[in-house]
Amino acid sequence: MSIDALVDAIRLRPPVSARVEGIEIERGIPTGESGFSIRMSDDVGGRTAGVPVDLATCPDCLAEVFDPLNRRYHYPFINCTQCGPRFSIITGMPYDRARTAMVGFPMCLDCQAEYDDPGDRRFHAEPNACPACGPRLAVWDRDGHPLDTDEAALATAADALRDGRIVAVKGVGGFHLMCDSRNGDAVDDLRHRKRREAKPFAVMFPSLATVRASCRLSQTEETLLTDSRRPIVLLTRTGGPIAEAVAPGNPRIGAMLPYAPLHHLLMRDLGFPIVATSGNVSDEPIVTDEHEAVERLAGIADLFLVHDRPIVRPLDDSVVQVVAGAGQVLRLGRGHAPARIAVDGVEEGIVAVGGHLKTAVAVTQDNSVVVGSHVGDLDTVASRAAHTAALADLTRFHAIAPRLAVRDLHPDYASRRAAETLGVDTVAVQHHLAHVVACLAENGVAPPALGVAWDGTGYGDDGTIWGGEFILVKRDSWRRVGRLRHFPLPGSEAAVREPRRAALGLLFEAFGEEAVTMTDLPTVAAFDVAERGVIGRMLTRGVNAPLTSSVGRLLDAFASLCGLRQVNGYEGQAACELEWAAGERAGGAPYDFPVSDDAEGMLVVDWQPALEAALAELRAGGASDVVSEAVHGGLIAAIVKVAARVGENRVALSGGCFQNVRLTEGAVAGLRETGFTPLWHRRIPPNDGGLALGQAVWAGMTETAS
Q1: Which InterPro entries match (predicted)?
Q2: Is 349 buried (19+), middle (13-18) or exposed (0-12) by CB count in 10 A?
Q3: Alpha-carbon dihedral angle through residues 215, 220, 225, 231, given to the nearest 10 degrees
Q4: Which of 384, 494, 618, 687 counts the most CB atoms within 10 A of its CB?
Q5: Whole-number mean pLDDT of the chain?
Q6: In whole angstroms, what is the distance from residue 300 CA to residue 316 CA?
C-alpha cells in the first residue's frame, strides 16, 4: 500500500474503534527502511496522545468465544486490538502492557506469537490473554469463600439469577448488582437491600430481539445500543416481561447490550433480560475490588462472580438518550470517558473540579480540555475521596502539573475544598456561566452567544438561587440578561426534596397568605394543618425561604400542583414525571410566559399567567397531560422570545433541565424556525457532569484575554 493510499484509508475507512480528529501531512525523505514494527515507548513527559477507551467485544472475538474448536472457547476475557478493556486497566501512558493491570499476567507462547505478528489482529493488543495465561473467573459466597471457578463459576451464577437471587458481578469498570428483571420480588428485594426506593434500574438484554420485545427502538437508538462503547440507552417501554418495579412509573427503560465476554457468556446461558445496576450502596462510588465488594456489598448480594484482573479506576456505565435525532450523553462513563474537547488558546495546567452533584473533573492540555469520568454526588466521605482520587489520577495520567484550580462559586461545596487543597491559585466560575461555556466548547463555537442555563440549583452572585438564566457570553466577559421571575422556596434545601414546598412558594408569591388555605389543590392538601402553619409563617416572615429563579423548581411545582409528585424519591423525579405526563401530546395551546423588563433592564419571564391557567384547567377537571404540554410549550416560546429580544444568533441550551427531551427538542425546533442557531449537548452531559468543562474553558479564555 502506498503512503497516499494509507492516508486515504485512515480518512475514509478508519478502524471501527478509531476517532479521527484531524490529519496533518508532512513530506519527508525516504530512508530505505523495510518492514514495520512497534517499539517500546519512551517514558517521557508531555503526554498528549488520546487515551484509549474501553470497547465492547468485537464480532471476531465473539465468534471465537462461542467456537468449540477455538482455544479461547468460553474464555470470559477474550480481546483484540478492536475490543476489550483499555482506560479501566491502564496505569500510565504511553499505553504499553507494562503500564496496565495485565502486567501480572505474562503471555504464553501462543499469545506472545499473536502479539508479535503484524498480520494478526492481536498485534500489540496489550490485554491479550487466553485460558492458559490470563485472568480467571471464580464465584464466592457472601462471606467471600470460593465455591467454583471458570465455567462452573459462570453456571453457578446463572443458576442463582434464575432462582431469583442477587449476584454481584465484577465487570470492566466495576461491579454490577444483577437480578432477574422479570421477577418483581427479586427486584423489590434489590431495592430494599440497596436502599434505592424509586430510582430506575438499568437492564441488560441478551440481544436486539429481546430489546424490541420490551421497547420501541429507532434506527438511531439501535446504532447507539450496538456502538462499540455500549452505553445504557434510554428507550420507550412498549410492554414485554420487565417487572414494573425495575422503573416504577417510568415510561422508559435504561437498556444495554452485553459488552464484555463475561456478559455475553452469562446472557447466552440465561436468555432473558437482567437488572444490571451499579455495584454500590446508593450514593457511594461503584466498587471495583472483589475483597472490597464482599465487605461493602455482602448485605446486598447473595453471591459474587469475580475475577483476578485488577480494575485500575472505577467506570460507571455511560448513559445516553436520543435528542433531536442524535445521541446525547447524560453520564460520561465507560467507553465515553475520558473525553477530549478541542479548545483553541487554552493553556496547559488548569484543573477544574466541577460542582457537587453528578461531578466530574477536567484538565487542560495542548489546546484541549480532557473531561474525566463520572464521579457522582459528593455527599459522602467515600464519594469525596473518589473525587480527590479522580483529580489526582487525571493529572498524573496526563503528566500535568496543576497551576490553576477552578471551582464553583458556592462556598460550601466539597469540590471547593478539593480545589483549595491543591496548593495553587484558585478562581471561581459562576455555575450557569460554566454550563453555557461547556455547551459552546463542545460545539466548537467561540463567543459571542446567548446561553440559556436552566437547572435546579446554582449559586447566584446576588444572594438568590439561580436556575432559569439567560446569559450573554462574550470573549472575556458575560452578563445575566434575563431570568425567571423569582419565587420563594420554604425550607430551602427541603424544597429540593419536596416539590410541594416549591409549589406552595409559587402559590404564595402569586396569591399571598391565601395560598395556604387552598386545600382543594393536591399541593396544599399534602401538608397537615400544623405543617401549613409553619410553612405559612416561613413565607410571611421570609425566614428560611430563599428566592429562586429556578426552572427546575418551577417544573417541580407544576408536577406537585398536578398531583403527580409531592416528595421526590430521587433527584429530579417530579420534573421527570411532569415531562412523562405529556406523553406524545402535540398541538395544544401553550401557556403564556410573558417577557418584560424589570427596573434594572433585565428581561424577566413571568410564570404567573401560566400558573393561573393551570389552576383553572385542573379545577375544571383537566388532566395533567394537558397542563404538562402547555407548560412545556410556554417555556419553549419564552426561550424564543428572549432570544428575539437579545438578538444574538447562536443560542446555547445547557443545564439539567435540557435533559428533558420535550423541552430540548421543542427549543431547538422553535429557535430554528425563527432563524436562530441552537446549540445543545451531545458528547458532554448538559447536567452538572459538564460543569468542569465550562469551568476550565472559561478560566483558560479569560487567562488568555488578560
Answers
A1: Acylphosphatase-like_dom, Carbamoyltrans_HypF-like, Carbamoyltransferase_HypF, DHBP_synth_RibB-like_a/b_dom, HypF_C, HypF_C_2, Sua5-like_dom, Znf_HypF
A2: middle
A3: -110
A4: 687
A5: 94
A6: 19
9 lies in some domain: no
Query: What mean pLDDT is predicted for residues 68-97?
Result: 95
Last residue of a domain, one of 91, 109, 133: 133
Q: Is the peptide bond before 447 cis (omega within 30 degrees of 0)?
A: no
CATH number of the domain where residue 78 is located: 3.90.870.30
**479 exposed, middle or buried (CB, 10 Å; 0-12, 13-18, 19+)?**
exposed
Contact predicate 398/93, CB 8 Å: yes
What is the C-alpha to C-alpha distance for residues 157 and 165, in angstroms, rounded to an integer?
9
Q: Which of 364, 422, 355 is nearest to 394 (CA)?
A: 364
Residue 433 and residue 557 in one domain? no
Instruction: State how far the Cα of 300 lies from the Cα of 617, in Å rounded to an integer.
Output: 46
Cell of 383: 464519594
Q: SS3 of 630, please?
A: helix
- Rounded CA gap, 277 and 126, in Å? 29
Lowest-pLDDT range, 23-27, 52-56, 333-337, 390-394? 23-27
What is the per-residue pLDDT for 46? 47
- Confirm if 281 and 380 have CB atoms less than 8 A apart: no
CB 491 within 8 A of CB 544: yes
Q: Same domain, yes or no, for 195 and 341?
A: no
What angle is formed at CA 242 by the lines to CA 238 and CA 246, rounded to 5 degrees?
110
Percent pLDDT > 90 in the chain is 89
| Residue 675 and residue 446 in contact, taking contact as beta carbons nearer than 8 Å | no
Distances (CA, A) of 216 to 208, 211, 319, 338, 578: 11, 8, 17, 30, 21
Question: Three-state SS for 8?
Answer: helix
Q: What is the pTM of this model?
A: 0.94
In this structure, the answer to whether residues 266 and 129 fall within a common structural domain is no
Question: Closest Cα to residue 573, out of 185, 181, 196, 192?
Answer: 196
Name the CA radius of gyration of the chain, rounded.
26
Residues 527, 436, single domain; the answer is no
Tell whether 337 and 435 lie within a shared domain: yes
* Residue found by looking up cell 450523553 in the block: 329
What total number of domains does the chain contain?
4
Residue 149 shares a structural domain with residue 120: no
Specify if 1 maps to a domain.
no
Beta-strand ranges (E) seen in 217-366 are 232-236, 252-256, 274-278, 303-307, 319-323, 326-331, 339-342, 350-352, 362-364
Residue 281: inside a domain, yes or no?
A: yes
In the numeric block, the cell 503484524 is attached to: 118
Phi-psi sector, 283: left (phi>0), alpha (psi -120 to 50), beta: left
Collapse the DSSP code of 678 into the 3-class scheme (helix H, G, I; strand E, B; otherwise coil) and give the result: strand
**Predicted confidence (pLDDT) per residue in 565-574, tens digit:** 999 999 999 9
Are residues 157 and 266 both part of a single domain? yes
Question: Which range marks the domain in which residue 100 is found?
Answer: 50-133
- Bridge partners of 453, per DSSP, are 469, 654
pLDDT tens track for 145-174: 999 999 999 999 999 999 999 999 999 999
Are 234 and 341 within one domain?
no
Q: How many CB atoms lie within 10 A of CB 170?
A: 25
Which CATH number covers residue 413?
Answer: 3.30.420.360
Among 688, 53, 683, smallest CA distance to 329 is for 683
CA dist., res. 291 & res. 145, Å (int)? 11
Asked whether 62 and 263 are in contact (CB, 8 A), the reply is: no
Assess if residue 128 is contained within a domain.
yes
